[in-house]
């Protein structure tokens, strides 16, 4: 059975748009037979990485020296096939998500190679992770707004020698619903996200049409911008 380790890095946890998108994605994975464990970065008693000596690379490879609740998660992380990192765009990441990413450093074995013009490493044999996927939401209109977050997770994956299974991105995510609940367009987005999770487990990848259906514009750019600009009119300066 495919084992999935998922982290929701949103400070709003279950109530946020990150959860809305991530939960259906994980549901799709489970429908395809995966076993998914979901963790909230903000619920963990998490200390920042403080081992400047690269303990997890050169002193005790594959092991983290920081003693906190994240230690209890390493056995499950090591046994997982797919790592799902879910986060809102937060210029660029919520702090707790960055803390989690630093704690993924033991996954990397620093046996260096020069691949396509970049210094890269490989994954440590203690970890089984074969794919990393990013699930992300943001408030603004265009997909380029996710570039920094995508680059962070793609770069981490490529440095670890693990397949980056694609960014699952939902811009202006708050337009998936209104005062009355989910809109028809929002429901279609979530259905596509569920399909994406299913595809990743059942077929090994997510097709580009499904990714596009998750990310498609819900309003024209000018309309969204006007809406944001109207919201600040009530502030005197
Ligand atoms: C500190 C901060 C920085 C943000 N930066 C961006 C940004 O650069 N681009 C963007 O599209 N949204 C940005 N947002 C909006 C969030 O991505 C958006 O509100 C998202 O829905 C929050 O996730 P959540 O619903 O899971 O809490 C930012 C929000 C905060 C609080």
UniProtKB/TrEMBL annotation:
Gene Ontology MF term list: oxidoreductase activity
Transmembrane regions listed in the UniProt entry: none
Tagged with keyword Flavoprotein: yes
Pfam families hit by this protein: FMN_red
InterPro entries: Flavoprotein-like_sf (IPR029039), FMN_Rdtase-like_dom (IPR005025), ISF_SsuE-like (IPR051796)
Secretion signal, residue range per the UniProt entry: none
Keyword annotations of the record: Flavoprotein, FMN
Residue ranges of domain NADPH-dependent FMN reductase-like in the record: 2-140
Keyword Cell membrane belongs to the record: no
Descriptive protein name: Multimeric flavodoxin WrbA
Protein's organism: Acidaminobacter hydrogenoformans DSM 2784
């Amino acid at each position: 059975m495919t084992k999935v380790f998922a982290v929701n890095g949103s400070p709003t946890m279950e109530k946020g748009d990150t959860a809305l998108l991530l939960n259906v994605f994980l549901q799709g994975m489970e429908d395809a037979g995966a076993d998914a464990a979901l963790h909230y970065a903000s619920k963990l008693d998490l200390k920042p990485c403080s081992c400047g000596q690269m303990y997890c690379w050169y002193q005790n490879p594959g092991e983290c020296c920081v003693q906190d609740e994240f230690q209890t998660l390493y056995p499950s992380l090591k046994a997982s096939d797919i790592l799902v990192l879910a986060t809102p765009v937060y210029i660029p990441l919520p702090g707790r998500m960055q803390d989690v990413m630093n704690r993924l450093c033991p996954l990397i074995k620093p046996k260096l190679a020069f691949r396509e013009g970049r210094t890269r490493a490989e994954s440590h044999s203690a970890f089984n992770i074969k794919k990393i996927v990013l699930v992300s939401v943001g408030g603004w209109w265009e997909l380029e707004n996710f570039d920094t977050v995508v680059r962070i997770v793609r770069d981490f994956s490529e440095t670890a020698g693990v397949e980056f299974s694609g960014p699952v991105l939902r811009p202006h995510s708050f337009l998936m619903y209104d005062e009355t609940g989910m809109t028809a367009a929002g429901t279609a987005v979530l259905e596509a996200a569920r399909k994406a999770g299913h595809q990743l487990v059942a077929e090994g990848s997510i097709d580009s049409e499904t990714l596009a259906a998750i990310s498609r514009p819900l309003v024209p750019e000018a309309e969204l911008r006007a809406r944001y600009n109207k919201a600040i009119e009530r502030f005197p300066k």
